[in-house]
Q: What sequence folds into this?
């Protein structure tokens, strides 16, 4: 059997990993995780070593490692490595001084310092603040709570401070074209709040439906708003999440973009025609398409 017969297309790799083919192409373009061998005039084909790198990339991102760091580890690790074979730690553990400062302020219940640190971070943009500071600190405190059963008050205080800071980003003065909704059993809205704020920074309007959006409510909102894009977010999938996704794709007229986001969807394959961005940068790229606005 020839090398070409053993190789895989981007679509075949996407199906094996349970991600959208656009994700595979983004990982190639942004992080250099494409085929090691490229032949002029031929479609790109992935061999077993390429697939192993992408499998490690996906495993690390599901475990909470920042995509750029996960890609670096995947490129440098021997073929066949798993997340447990690497020295990778969640982005919260590899974060810098700013994350440690935010974490200390949260543990001390110092609201003033939290607000100052978050305001300073947002001067560099929502995407930077969310990916390098807010999300890592939130994940860290969440892990501490899961491990010890403590720090509920810290988690709530930090969440409220992040929400307050994101709400301070001026909303885009444009017609809202993006609909943001959590799964029917999902209470955590901060990732969507960050999405709404980041969209506003680039002039894209959105509507936030918030936590625990029932299937019927989502269908009604899509019809009433004429949304051009629908983003569904779940930290952990439940049975109703699938029904919610089906409702979004069955809407008439169907929104040109339906995206399933969050750790819950990262660990599950999505149906054909449904985008599955792995991070906020990739989601924003998807939602800024000129045809949507």
A:
């Amino acid at each position: 059997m020839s090398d070409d017969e053993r190789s895989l297309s981007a679509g075949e790799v996407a199906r094996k990993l349970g991600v959208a083919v656009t994700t595979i192409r983004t990982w190639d373009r942004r992080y250099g995780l494409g085929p090691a061998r490229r032949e002029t005039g031929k479609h790109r084909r992935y061999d077993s070593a390429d697939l192993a790198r992408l499998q490690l990339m996906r495993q690390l991102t599901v475990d909470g490692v920042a995509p750029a760091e996960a890609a670096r580890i995947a490129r440098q690790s021997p073929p066949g490595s798993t997340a447990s074979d690497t020295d990778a730690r969640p982005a919260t553990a590899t974060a810098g001084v700013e994350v440690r400062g935010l974490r200390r302020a949260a543990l001390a219940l110092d609201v003033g310092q939290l607000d100052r640190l978050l305001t300073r971070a947002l001067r560099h943009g929502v995407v930077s603040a969310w990916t390098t500071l807010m999300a890592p600190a939130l994940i860290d405190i969440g892990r501490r709570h899961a491990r010890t059963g403590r720090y509920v008050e810290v988690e709530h205080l930090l969440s409220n401070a992040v929400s307050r800071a994101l709400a301070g980003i001026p909303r885009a003065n444009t017609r809202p074209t993006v609909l943001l909704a959590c799964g029917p059993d999902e209470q955590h809205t901060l990732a969507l709040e960050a999405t709404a704020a980041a969209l506003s920074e680039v002039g894209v309007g959105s509507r936030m439906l918030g936590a625990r959006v029932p299937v019927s409510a989502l269908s009604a909102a899509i019809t009433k708003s004429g949304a051009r894009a629908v983003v569904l977010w779940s930290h952990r999938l439940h049975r109703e999440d699938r029904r919610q996704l089906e409702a979004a794709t069955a809407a008439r007229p169907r929104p040109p973009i339906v995206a399933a986001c969050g750790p819950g969807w990262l660990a599950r394959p999505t149906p054909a025609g449904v985008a599955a961005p792995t991070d906020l940068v990739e989601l924003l790229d998807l939602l800024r398409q000129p045809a949507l606005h």
User: Anything to note?
Assistant: Residues 1-5, 88-95 have pLDDT under 50 and may be disordered. Residues 176-292 form a domain with the Rossmann fold fold (CATH 3.40.50.280). Residues 93 and 140 are 8 Å apart (CA to CA). The first strand starts at residue 176 and ends at 182.
